[in-house]
Amino acid sequence: TSERPLFKKKNSPTEASTRQGCPASPALFILALEPLACAIRANENIQGIDIGGYNFKASLYADDILLTLTNPNQSISQLLTLLELFGKNSGYKINCSKSEAIPLNQYTFPSHLGTAPFVWKSQGMKYLGIVIKSPICKIFELNGPNILKTIKEDIRRWAALPLSLWGRAEVIKMNLLPRLTFPISAIPLKVPQKWFKEIDTLFTQFLWNGKKPRINRKKLTMPKGKCGLGVPSIYMYYLAFNVRYPLTWGYNEKNHRTPGSWEVHVSKKNHT
């Protein structure tokens, strides 16, 4: 027997993009945007920041683009020309009036930036949920307290939910953990120990619903295979995120994607 659709509809033109919710949509978008990133990196007139022999210009995450540029008069002019050319050929146009920019040098603003069509944020801007401001040493002050405040409000709302100890541990792992690990891995600064202690206190209050704990917290953080609940230790996550930098610097020559000697050593150890 042949299958027939229940509803007949006119064919959608190919320029109508993919269906909403289609898993291929983000992958196709990344492929479509990558030529722009390659063109920015290849353009010598668009100057980035030189660190350790590398020139950093563009960082892309899905549809969010972060550019770190120097020599603003020349770089921004060349960038706008490139964006216009990319828009004509791809049909994808970047709305400059909704694009934010921040000067990281006191000598840059405002004389060099008067003609640039971006929204200039002298008090900081947000990228991937992280508030960025110059000087960089203030980044945690702008983000840490707000993250803690949001988690406190959520825990206060969830306190009355009829959840078991195991259920509350799963809520921490599924909801709170991702919201904490991303900021501490993205902010390149030392996070005060006091901040982690406040998070541990909030976790304990939520786990025991404000009552006196009956099990040591250290035991709760142990994996389930060792009779624990696997409650995350945010401070240990913080250490794990930061230890990757010196390991990369020390063992991965020129930041190649080949495994460093420490990775090979760990791999051999796990197989013996």
From TrEMBL:
Residues 1-20 are annotated as: Disordered. Residues 1-132 form the Reverse transcriptase domain. This is Reverse transcriptase domain-containing protein. PANTHER family: REVERSE TRANSCRIPTASE DOMAIN-CONTAINING PROTEIN-RELATED. InterPro entries: RT_dom. The lineage of its organism: Eukaryota, Metazoa, Chordata, Craniata, Vertebrata. PROSITE patterns: RT_POL (PS50878). It comes from the Eukaryota.
